[in-house]
Amino acid sequence: MNTNTLLSLPLLALALGGFVVGSSEFIIMGLLPEVAADLNVSLAAAGLLVSAYAMGVVIGAPLLGPLLARLPRKQALLWLMGTYALGNLGCALAPDYYWLIAMRMLTAFSHAGFFGCATLMAAELAPLHRRASAMALVLSGLTIANVLGVPLGAWLGQASSWRVTFAVVAVIGLLALLAQALWLPRMPAPPANSQGAWDGILRKPVLHALLVCSLTSVALFSVFTYIAPLLRDYSGFSASQSNGALLLFGLGLTLGNLLGGRLADKGLPHAIPLALGSGLLCMLVYYAFGSSQLLTLALLFVWGVASFAVSSPLQLLLVEQAGDSASLAATLSHAAFNLGNASGALLGGLWLSANYGLPQLPLFGAALLAVAALVAWPLPRLRMARKRFEGQ
């Protein structure tokens, strides 16, 4: 079933689900100091809540991927969103630190499955020449969560309690579940030859793209996990001002995601490494001039654009290269991103624990981005080779 417009109720329902998932995943960044104080743990220990969520995605993706591929996409999405809403309610009611880690991992199990199913369903609903843009629209829910969900959730958590924030996310999750039940079309289960087969995943281009997915997230989350203390202690923002700064970062993410979809549809060469290089430059300038609040705001916006301009091109590349394993590849891409999230949060925490200094953390992130850009440089050749193959 195709549609000539990307502004359709089914795609909006999928984007709303992405908003819920993105809010729950990223909202913890703006509340790390509050969670750490309430649960009586260190800031580095609170950062492990990010790693626990990411590892839940990594573990859940290969386990759920083949199972979800046997179900009609709508049925799979409803199960996943229902689990996500209940998991966030469990976070809100967590009696201690370890219960919160367990609930974060439970919600994370459905994360990769949701985005894998949702992006593929979006691609099936869109015209062939708008596939990447349709996938980007679903992911825009994730980025809009950073524009609205993260700063508003941080403000709500600081004004009342971080538990209230997670409870609100659970309620929005139930609304997303209702929207998907009403608006998503019923579609048959994927054919037997695409039910999570691993043959396509083991191709070198797919493994290469999955590696880049992880490396980009390692670089991003080594810094972004600790963005709240960075903005407050290094750049001199108050708690309320840092929420406004996060709003700018989220606007950059949204624009970067949509820009990445357009670049992927047009097949622009070297879009991925150039975006990574732009992020590297932002980190270097922030390290040198992060005490300037006005410059910091501009850098946050540009960093957000660069950070998510890589998502849709990588997603489309994986789906194209994986062939009959596209469903599993889409799911594993989010596992790869979240493996990077977990590793980045852990590496950033180790950096801080080793007393290298919070102001020097962007320099560490820049070094990681340099590695990611170098590894990603050959990726555009893979898609061009695919086009030549299809044109023969």
Describe, in plain words, how this protein is organized in 3D:
The radius of gyration is 19 Å and the shape is globular. With 392 residues, the chain is mainly α. Helix content is 80%, strand content 0%. The protein starts with 8 loop residues before the first helix and ends with a helix. The protein has a single domain (9-391), classed as Up-down Bundle (Growth Hormone, Chain: A).
Could you give a short description of this structure?
The chain has 392 residues and is mainly α.
| DSSP strand count | 0
Radius of gyration: 19 Å
Q: Could you name the CATH topology?
A: Growth Hormone, Chain: A
CATH architecture: Up-down Bundle
Average pLDDT figure? 84
Note the gap between the termini: 27 Å
- Helix/sheet category: mainly alpha
Order of helices and strands: HHHHHHHHHHHHHHHH
Helical coverage, percent range:
over 70%
Assign the CATH class.
Mainly Alpha
Shape, please?
globular
In CATH terms, the superfamily is: MFS general substrate transporter like domains
Query: What is the helix tally?
Result: 16
How does the SSE layout of this entry go?
Layout: H1 9-26, H2 32-39, H3 43-68, H4 73-92, H5 97-125, H6 131-159, H7 162-183, H8 204-224, H9 227-234, H10 239-266, H11 271-289, H12 293-308, H13 311-322, H14 326-353, H15 361-376, H16 379-391
Domain Major facilitator superfamily (MFS) profile: 10-384
Organism: Aquipseudomonas ullengensis
Protein name: MFS transporter
List keywords for this structure.
mainly alpha; 392 residues; MFS transporter; Growth Hormone, Chain: A; single chain; disordered C terminus
